[in-house]
Structure formats: structure tokens, C-alpha cells
Write the C-alpha cells for this entry.
Amino acid sequence: MHANPFSDDELGARLTRVRAEMAARDLDLLLLTAPENVFYLTGLDHWGYFAPHLLAVPVEGEMTLITRAMERVAIANMVRNARFAGHSDTETVADIAARVLAGPPSRRIGLEMDTAGLSLALGQALQAGIPGHWQDATGMVDRLRLVKSPAEQALMRRAAKASDAGMRAAIATLADGSSEAEAAAACLAAMTRAGGTPPGFGPFIRPEARIAEEHTSWGTGRYRTGERVFLELAGCVARYNAPMGRLVHLGTLRDEDAAMAELAKQAFDAILAAMRPGVAAGDVYQAWQDVVDTAGMPGYRRHHCGYLVGIGFPPSWTGGNRVTGLRPDSTLILETGMTFHAMSWFTETGRGDWFVSNTVLLGPEGAEILTTTDPGPTLR
């Protein structure tokens, strides 16, 4: 989180695509508030996104980035394609925007209204201070980010290597009496040494007693023989996150869990086989569900069997405050260059439990797994 990872050509191509979408919506000005989208168009990679950032994209001319004045050095070092307008801490983004973005009231202005980067108060202040015909542009740039360029795919591959390093290091620490903190420390250190930067989420490393919790991580306890350990983490390089998950057994492995591991891997293979350019996301989910149904568990359902990943700022590796999932009802059409956190998750089945997930890149001929740590069963 210290450098712009993108070339001028890469940024220019992205801006061209965004402006084509603006023209299709007859927008004169687009105001972006999602950190992921500001980064996508400018390459600004820092932790200053805790405070509002507003990237103004005119249909023609130079972009303007408005945020706290104290960020000027980082922005000068990283941002080459937008002018900077900073505000003091006695002003707001909206105060500056009203001055530097003044224009005719006939302008059509798009605003990302449903993002973690925009409060209700700021949205209201922007619309009150800048005359124009306003419309919600939420999701417009997010959709363009779903397909990764060759440069982005290279970053995802580097992130996946960091993921594997962190996963293997964490697993190596697991033993009777080992501490939850040691597993986390080993994971984070290994990801960092492998070239990783701070991830958008996690790592989520949980003991048996808290496996069912969705978004909590390590605590102060120690692992014991007979327990299971849940590990879900993402290596991250230049904001690109490559998640993966494994389930590790300490000392013993029940027969029913071993059987469920084989079913989970079979269902995961079905996800990969179904992933083809032009296929609907809902059909990929159905391929996973068909394996479940054939195994005699037609009542077992998941809300998805994966989701798209890539750029992610804390507290998310999903690319913002929404999840674009491989859901049973999704009509999203898969395209070459999309990257997914694909998962085969079986818990509370009554027939054993297992979980395995990987980052997957969709190529012209099908899916490629980027995270390569052995899926298990893993017994420590």
C-alpha cells in the first residue's frame, strides 16, 4: 500500500470504458465514492479511505480527486491522471466539490449512492451544493471491474502465491496446545514475506467452538487434539485479494468427515467444470447443487458456491459492500478474465462437515485454480 501498480495505458483504457458507459447513460459528470473504484481509475493505494474520497469524472477533460488536504503527498506520489483538491478538517468534501465542480444546472450527474464511501449526509450535501439532474450510478464501474485485464490477472497470481504461503504456514503451527495467536502470526508473516500487502479481510482462523461464526478470527485460546480448525484467508498484492479456505483436523478424523471431504471435492470439481465463458452464474451453482442432490442431500442448500473477487479494501475482499455471487438465481454471464472465490461448503449436514475454497481464474478454455495448497483431508 505505497505505490501505483498501474501503467498509464492501463488507467487510460479503464477511463475510456467508464466514459463509454457515461455516454450510454447520457451523463456529463460521474462522482465516484467507492474506494475500490477510486483506486481502479487512479491507482491511489493507501489507508486514507477511512475518510471520504470523491473522484469526479467528466465525460471530457481531467478528473478531479477531492479528499482531505493532508493526503496531498501520497496523492502527488501515486496519482498521475487527476488533479487534487484538498479540504481542511474544518470543511468537507461537499464544501470543496461545490466550488470546484460548479457548472450549469442542466448537467446530468451520476453519483455512486450505495457504497461504503458515502454517508447519507455527504450525499445530501453534494446534491444540495452542485446543481444538476442527479441519478444513481451505483454499480456502473463495479461491473467493469468484474473482468480482469492481463495486468490485473498477474496481480491475482501474485496474491494467490501469498495466500498459499500464509495457509501453509498457519497449518504448520497447528498442534495440541498451540495458540490461536501463533497460527495467525505465522500466517500474516508468511504472506508478507511472500510479497503480500495488508489484505482486505481476515485472516479468519477459528477454533472448533467458533467455526460457525462467519466473520470472526483468532482469539486467545489454544487448540486441542480432537478439534477442527477453520482457516479462510486471502493473500493480497496491490489491493488484489486471492481468498482460499481449508478445514484442518487435529489428531483425529471422523469417517463421516472424511467422506464429506470427498463429496466437497467432487462438488468443487463440478463448479470448475461448469465455469465456461458464456455460462450463467446460476448454472454454475446448479452444477454444485446437482452433486449435493445426487449424494442424497436435496434439502441442503447454500446461498452461493462462490463470488467474484479482485480489488478489495478493508473491511472486505469482495470488492465493496455487496457480493456478486454464484447464486442459484443469478443471470450474470461469465466472461474470460473473471476471478472467483469458488467454494464447496458443507457444515451442519448431519453427515459430516467439510469446507474447501480457492481463487479461480476463468480463461478462454475454462477455469484455472490459482491457490494450490492441498485441499485435504489434512490431519495434524
Q: What stands out?
A: Residues 280 and 333 are 4 Å apart (CA to CA). The two ends are 35 Å apart (CA to CA). The chain is about 35% helix and 20% strand.
